[in-house]
Amino acid sequence: MVGTGAHWGCCCLSVLTPKPSATRLVLYSRSAQLRSIVPSPCNQLGQLAAMPSSIIKAFRRALHGVLFGASLGSLAVLCNIVQVVTLLLYPINRKLVGQINALICDAIWRTINVAMERRNGARITFSGDHAVVPMNKQPVLGSINPTLPPTESAIVICNHLCAIDWAVINTLAIRRGMLAHGKYFIKSSMKYLPLFGPGMLLAGFPFLSRNWASDQHKIDAIFKTLREDRLPCWLISFLEGTRLTPKKLAESQAFCQKNGRPVLQNVMYPRKKGLVATLSALRDSHVHYVYDMTIAYRYRPTGAVNEVFPNVATIHTDYLGDDWDFHLHVDRIPIADIPEDPAVVEQWIEDRWVKKDQLIAQWKAAWPGTSKVPIPAKL
């Protein structure tokens, strides 16, 4: 009886339930086709979430590259125009032209720093004397404010690892109010870099051919202007002269072995003549310190230190906080404490590079977990 009742109930349901018409079946079929062709927003979100992260990163990188490249390029064009126009003022007020160019450098460097630190989350730590480098509060444009401490100018020397070392140095400059006043010694070929090469040339950056006989008169002219106008400056030089690669490091080590110099493992042997001349020319000027800086990079996915490096595109387009650590060590040395004899200065430079080599060896063994210094809000 149970089975019979169940069968009877099923039969009744089949009779009572209306069967779909042919028209309704066609509509259902068309609706299913449309859903397969035009997915719903929920389906689209699901497909987006299922996309490989590499594709999303590539899209993000391309979008940031286009937007940031357009904005930075437009700013550079505007700055070049202002620089060319202000050349008319040079015979009348050379110091004012230097101050205007400092403001222009500040605008360019600050835009890049915003991309690197604020937007892309670069993780930067500092050690050494970074905290005793004084904050510059003097205005970039106009006369010195006597109620504020004077600006501390310095010669900056640093190891050279990759194409963005300048951006790491600028992270300290922005924290000390000196972003406008950095002048880098740059290889001569960089003057042909579109927009930025002419801009740096007009801003008074020293362009060098690495031939002392041809470079000396250019450097002397830069030093003469700095002494006479007493413009604030960080005069920044990478004494190794080129970026670190395994091939170049091996060549440097071979040179040291041949000439009885310390064989360095983590930095290349420095070129000394330029710094000796710089110290001699500026010893009695308003430049009173040497900042000896040492840079290191850690690639977090592998833990490798100074083996792979971010590039100029990476710091503008990629989120850096997940993959990279940046570290900057600073030794602040009074020029008055550095001997005047050129031979002794050369030995002093060698000793500084031996210390850099030892520092980086320590960081490879244990990455320095030292202080993160925030960018002042007003900057």
TrEMBL record:
GO terms for molecular function: 1-acylglycerol-3-phosphate O-acyltransferase activity. The chain crosses the membrane at residues 66-90. GO terms for cellular component: endomembrane system. The keyword Transmembrane helix applies. Residues 154-276 form the Phospholipid/glycerol acyltransferase domain. Keywords: Acyltransferase, Membrane, Transferase, Transmembrane, Transmembrane helix. It comes from the Eukaryota. CDD domains: LPLAT_LCLAT1-like. InterPro entries: Acyltransf_C, Plipid/glycerol_acylTrfase. The keyword Acyltransferase applies. Belongs to the 1-acyl-sn-glycerol-3-phosphate acyltransferase family. This is Phospholipid/glycerol acyltransferase domain-containing protein. It comes from Allomyces macrogynus (strain ATCC 38327).
